[in-house]
Amino acid sequence: MGTDGEEGSGLGLMITKSLVMNLDGKIEIESEEKKGTTVHLYFYKY
Hints:
Blueprint: H1 11-22, E1 26-32, E2 36-42
Antiparallel strand pairs: 1-2
C-alpha cells in the first residue's frame, strides 16, 4: 500500500527495471515505512 492507501500492481517498476537493464544502467530503491519510496535511475554515457 502507498502512503495514501493506494494500491499498485508493480507493473511500472518491472517495465522501468527492464528498460534500465537493457541500457546498462542502474536502479536503486530507498523505502521508508510511512514515508514513501525514492527511486534513483542511473544511465551511463559511453
